[in-house]
Amino acid sequence: VELLPSGRAVRVRGLALHGTGREYGPNMGELDFIGDLGAGTVTFIDELRPGAPYRLSLKFAEGMLLATEDNEFGYFGVGVMFRGRYVRTE
């Protein structure tokens, strides 16, 4: 996550894997978007599937990032998700 110079937007990039021990390799998903930062939250929405858009909400609070998803099943590959709590480890 990178705060852009305006201070009102962020660039979010990520890679998630599922099934890294599988014989033919894991399912993987890549995320790369720029979103407006409002009240400590940024949201990415993709209307790829009509009636069931994928939504990723990122909330920045108390030194961590909380990621929640809606309609994530199969969006990036079966079992691939970005939801969870993230903490900076510098």
Topology:
Layout: E1 2-3, E2 9-18, E3 27-36, E4 41-46, E5 54-61, E6 64-70, E7 84-87
Antiparallel strand pairs: 1-2, 2-3, 4-5, 5-6, 6-7
Keywords:
90 residues; mainly beta; four-stranded antiparallel beta sheet; three-stranded antiparallel beta sheet; 0% helix; globular
Quick rundown:
By secondary structure, this protein is an all-beta fold. It has strands spanning 2-3, 9-18, 27-36, 41-46, 54-61, 64-70, 84-87.
Description:
The protein is about 0% helix and about 50% strand. The chain is an all-beta fold. The protein is built from no helices and seven strands. The radius of gyration is 14 Å and the shape is globular. The strands form two sheets. It has a four-stranded antiparallel β-sheet with strand order 4-5-6-7, with no helix packed on it. It has a three-stranded antiparallel β-sheet with strand order 1-2-3, with no helix packed on it. The protein has strands at about 1-5, 10-20, 25-35, 40-45, 55-60, 65-70, 85. A hairpin with a 2-residue loop joins strand 5 (about 55-60) and strand 6.
Number of helices: 0
Average pLDDT over all residues = 92
Percent strand: over 45%
Give the N-to-C terminal Cα separation.
Answer: 13 Å
Structural class: mainly beta
Order of helices and strands: EEEEEEE
Radius of gyration: 14 Å
Low-confidence stretches: none
- Tell me the number of strands: 7
For the biggest sheet, the summary is: 4 strands, antiparallel
Residues in helix, %: under 10%
Principal-axis shape equals globular
